[in-house]
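The following record pairs a protein chain with its ligand, pyridoxal-5'-phosphate.
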Amino acid sequence: MIAPPLLPITRPTIDEETIAAVCEVLRSGWITSGPQVQAFEAALSELCGGRPVRAFNSGTATLEVALRLAGVGAGDEVITTPLTWVATANVILEVGATPVLVDIDPRTRNIDLAAIEATITPRSKVLLPVDLAGVPVDRDQLYAIAGRHQLRVVEDAAQSIGASWNGQPIGVGGDFVSFSFHANKNVTSCEGGALVLPADIDPALCERLRLQGVRRFADGGMDVDVLGGKFNLTDVAAAVGLGQLKRLQEFTARRRALARLYFEHLDRVLCLQMGLELPPAEFENGNWHMFQALLPADRDRGEFIAAMREMGIAVGVHYPALHLFTLYRELGFHDGQFPHAESVGARTVTLPLFPTMSDADVDRVCTALTIVLRS
Ligand SMILES: *Cc1c(COP(=O)(O)O)cnc(C)c1O
């Protein structure tokens, strides 16, 4: 039998118009940060209800600058989830602060909001929640907690562009909101990120933290009074992002439709008898960044992934609980500390889901899944 072509877990949708726009930038004589970045920031700001937005060269840099703008440094504590891409916790270490982890709510797979208050100390400075797979954290509860304890919030919305809360797109409300435009995200600029700024933060300071701390004067002189990084986005990348942003609604709608198909196809027998767990059915607010099922606890995930691959279906793992990585164990984290995150992290599998996937592709995935799980 000829192996079918591998169906990837995700794939960017870059149209010809975007490719032409990139070529135009390349030919223009100005390829790093310039007019395209400004246009990208303006388009993002429009999506976020007119709030100020600044673009970065990665979501990680965006989060790091958000923490610095929130005044986080050595001795401060930042509260986040153990079930996320490790960047979320790495940036806390990067600014010299201490990550304080709170287990997930197994229903949403996001930080357990009800468990946050028990971890707050006089050193707590910021809540750093993550909308895993584009399922938004309950913003009403989140900001009620932040308000009661006078904490700032940096929303790690790397995965939730196009998702919404109370009928408003993520980014319209809230304190700091950080997006990522990594190649696998719902909107990409190949690599990139953007920070939505709260009203009390000076966008000019954000720009200085983005680029070497440099402040330029009208007479051509300059000064540096703060330590900034090298985090600016290129115009080439911004042109890609602009082309993507135009199609955000269409991409999100298609992702939702595919997720609905998964729910229709994955038969209840498979779930009830075989112990497969489906993701939270968040069709109103979620952007379906990923479709993540949990394998039965007694299944070997490595064997499952290999068997699916044999049938032409790529399967990903997003993510193992980060406190079990060596770096975090060396900081004192250990097994058994966050049982829900550990269980989901050990059982989670990401199935293919991207806008150009066909309905027949979903059929293919579900058929393979059924055969592999029953074998
Ligand atoms: C992708 C991602 C990041 C980091 O974004 P990069 O653009 O890859 O630096 C941070 N947090 C979460 C939850 C992410 O998914």
